[in-house]
Each structure stands twice: as C-alpha cells, then as structure tokens.
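Hi, here's the filled form for the chain we discussed.

Project: internal
Contact: R.S.
Residues: 206
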Amino acid sequence: MLAPLAAWAILATVAVYRTHEARIEADDFSREFVKLQVQKSGIDVVTSLVRKYHGSWRDYATPSNSESPCGGNAEIADFIFDNTWLHRLFLAPLTEYSATIYVKSDCVCFRSLGIWDTVERFTGVHIQEFSEAPAMHSFYSRLMLPKAVIVMDTHAPAEARAAAFSLNLDCLTKLRGCQDTREMAPAIWKNSHRVGPTLWKSQWDE
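And the returned structure, exactly as it came back:
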C-alpha cells in the first residue's frame, strides 16, 4: 500500500517541478513577445524566439488566396507552453499558453496570444493584433466568463495593449486550474464594464 503512495508522491513532485519550469519559460517568452512590434519587428527576431523557446515554423506558408491576417504568403511560427505533467496526474485541467506570429516580407504582420484550459469543457482568452484591425476599431473586446476575445491593431492605446497581454501564467501551475477568464486575464477584466446579461467590454473599446 505504501509503495504506490510513495511512487505517486514522487511523480507528483516531478510534475510540479516540470510544470514550474514550463511556467518560468512561458514568463520569459511573454516578456519578449510583448516587445514585438507588428509592422516593425523583423523575421530575425522571430527566428531567435523559435530557437530559444522551442517554437516551430509551420511546414507551409499561407497561400496567396487565403483569408489570412496578412493576405497570404506569410510564414507562421507557433509556440506552446503547457501543464501536461499536472494534467496527467489529474491535478489540473490541461492548460496551454500559446502564441502565433505571422511574418511577411521579413516583417511581423500579425500576432496572437492566448491561454486555454478544459475547465467547463473549454475556457480561454484569445488576443489578436493586426496591422489594421478588420473591425475598423483599434481596440475591441468581447469578455465573457467562459471565453474572452480581444482584437487590436497598431493604433491601440499602449495601456490597453499592456492590459490585454497581461495574462495570468499562474494558471499553468495552479492546482485545479483557473476557473474562468477573470482569472486568466485579470488586468483586462479590472478595466471592464457590463454591456449585457453575460457580456462585458473593456473601457478602451471604441
């Protein structure tokens, strides 16, 4: 009886340690990701991030007729940090912190960032930054407890961008995970107001 408990305790210790490592790496990546500038940062910066944080370039570029954020023919880099070890021991729902960067003509033309987990089947925050936001607003948010979406472009206020990108990476290491998007994106929720029975918007929405 004691042997299985001892083995589980060892595995749990390893899981906590490995997840803490992923959390630290995600935090380091986040600081560098935030410094990227759409329309200004070059492919060399993205290539460095891919090497440093175990990112991956997709095997294909977006085709010319694609409805991609950059109009096609863009190279795409993906990054994922997760709590797989905690999840395997049923200590937390599977949680991922992920980012995608599009590069076209050797320049960043789009980026997205998000955090997701399987609480209540699927809960997450998704942030997108375009060269020019498709909704003709420099900053737009749709905040609900299960899901939150934030869309901005290069003209978004600096304080709005900072709040949006301030995701709670403790969700990766928290036992039982973060329960809703208020925990995942506290800075943007702190500056929100109710506009419907289940819907909020940021104070920076136009």
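Let me know if anything looks off before we file it.
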